[in-house]
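Pilot study result, target chain (364 residues):
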Amino acid sequence: MTVSTTTIKDSYAGNDSVTAFSYTFKVFASSEAKVYVRTDSTGAESLRAEGTGSTNYAVSGVGETGGGTITFVTAPITGETVIIRRLSAKTQATDYQPSDSFPAASHEDALDKLTNITQEMQEELDRSFKVSKTNSITTPEFVDNAATRASKVLGFSTDGNTLEASTAIGDNTGNWATSTAYTVRDMVKDTSNNNIYFCITAHTSSGSQPISTNADSAKWSLLVDAASATSSASAASSSATAAATSATSSASSATSAASSATTATSKASEASSSATAAAASAAAAATSADNFDDTYLGAKASDPTLDNDGDALSTGDLYFNTGSNVMKVYTGSAWNVAAADTSTFVTAADAASTAAALAIALGG
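Predicted structure:
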């Protein structure tokens, strides 16, 4: 049988009810099917075992090309992931006997097992840290012993070509205290200003806080400048308060401006009404002037035939004739003198004289 798949691992989500999970690859023994249960929230992994206990499982389908089933005694819960992985035994159990017929089936199983082992090694390589195909590390091994590696992290040499246990992992030792033995990379809090310091030289502390002015200050490196951060926060708070005050003033100014705008709008409306009234009065005055101008035509040397606007004359039109010094009125068809000539009227003296003469004549 050929090995036509490279799958050596299957993964499923638990749901509190399902107990049976398929694996899709061939195993030659139930022990080659390794079952892990991972807690998703923490990443913790548990290697389970075959058996009948509450955390155990049973295996079916051993030797089948398409795989089989892992059946748990207790269903994995929601929040857990089931991983089924093949891990072949690194042994060679096929024994060829001289002069025997060629054991094709056994030989093919042996080849399949070698292929399985190769696939499993490749899966592990795929999960390993390694440099890219176009990169290299001159010395990918490190020789530091366990004591040297203790509490250290793996890093690189200054040229980047050698792996080494280089940097100690520091511990958070809480608040700084006098007469306390500190090691390199210990972290402490200076309670006088809340700054966080990093120990760069092992020593037993002396003096008092703040660490920056302590006799051992050179043995510490400032890691978190909380004092400056607090100062900046205070300044930011003051700025925010000032900004809030400015915003309040702006709001008051805006209210005043809105009130002024309302007043201006009202005054503008009043001015518009006054302008409208003035325009109406002006129009009425103009109409009255025009009407008067159309009725009294003014002084003229002779009888006019049209009014001052060039329109036809109307009954009642008046004008002063400068030639005869009389006021004339238009009757609708002709101009007549509107005032009598008083030069021929009897005067009071003439009337008295006439009365006296009549009295004498009548014998009185």
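One observation from the pilot: The longest strand covers residues 33-39. A full batch analysis is planned for the follow-on phase.
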